[in-house]
Amino acid sequence: MAIRPILTAPDPRLKAVSTDVEKVDGEIRKLAQDMADSMYAADGIGLAAVQIGVPKRIIVMDLDQKEGKKDWRAFINPKITWASEDLAVYEEGCLSVPEIYDDVERPARIRAEYLDLDGKKIEIEADGMLATCLQHEMDHLEGVLFIDHLSKLKRAMLLKKLTKAKKLAEA
Ligand code: NI
Questions:
Q1: How far is the CA of 77 from the centre of ligand 1 (A)?
Q2: Cα(120) to centroid of ligand 1, in Å?
Q3: Sign of CA pseudo-dihedral 125, 128, 132, 134
């Protein structure tokens, strides 16, 4: 178990495009465990490997955290195979964009495939929070943050706020 520091915007490493995992082995399982530990330590519900500075296509998620029960799952090399035309709006936040929340519109339902921690291919259909979170986390694999979906003006304002907060924290 290892808790790793989570990068925050505007760290340029968050813009990296992650590469496919070639083989789901012990090393990848250990990385996923570290990601889950880091996610729980930061009170998050999802985390992409790039957020701890490892640009590999791995996501961990636990949307249903109750009574300290840790029931996370990993999505390796995830791909969206279908997205609904109807959209849904959720207020999103991100461990890499601390203390900022805003509405983002995305397809309401998706189908996706990914590998689990045994390297087994899984296909799922998702809606609601799972659909939103998967799309949010998969954006990270392309170097995209949820604030990139907002208007240019709003994003610039939020980034200014983040940079200021970072400077204060370092002072
Ligand atoms: Ni995020």
A1: 17
A2: 25
A3: negative
pLDDT surpassing 90 at residue 149:
yes
Mean pLDDT of the chain: 95
Nearest-CA neighbor of 58 among 125, 126, 116, 127?
A: 116
Choosing from 92, 137, 142, 170, the catalytic residue is: 137
Cα separation, 59 vs 62, in Å, equals 10
User: How far, in Å, from the CA of 137 to the mean position of ligand 1?
Assistant: 6
Domains, the chain: 12-163 (3.90.45.10)
Q: Is 142 a catalytic residue?
A: no
Centre of ligand 1 to C-alpha 136, Å, is 6
- pLDDT average, residue stretch 80-92: 97
